[in-house]
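ingest -> validate -> predict -> emit
validate: passed (alphabet ok, no gaps, 172 aa)
predict: started
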Amino acid sequence: MEDNGSQYERVKEGLRKWLAGARKLMVLGVGNELRGDDAAGMLVTRVLKRFNSERFEAVECGVSIEDCIDYAFEKKPSHLLIVDAFPDGKRLMLLNLADLESRTPVSTHAIPLSLLLEALGKPVETSIKVLGVGVENFELGVTISDECVKLVDEIAKAIREVATGLGLLGEI
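emit:
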């Protein structure tokens, strides 16, 4: 298994390449605080919201990804990053929409992400990726693990650093 440092660097490099030339980045965080580590995506955006600006916006979706996707498409970002938990153990994955066919998110949103994006008619001008956060602790009624809290902070830091380096955010 890849160590955490290599995973972060791989994800950061993937984000840098994908976001090169971005006009506006929107980050949607999906999750459910009642299901332990499933809250990871939502908590990442909770950390990032304070940096919202003209070229960067983080939105806590919770389990209502459907409303968030509709809102995001109205805002017309050039790049849309969806952060969601997946039951893949302790891994980070930067996924294209085509990659979602073989992955199952943990979150309780009723409609699979790939079908939802297809149904809403993904805007041609918006490039979309999913940052999958591999978790193991997602039982109903459990609290988020200390390990996941640390992971959330690292992911938010990586997104902030990349967005700042590309001029989407002011200085950190």
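The two ends are 32 Å apart (CA to CA).
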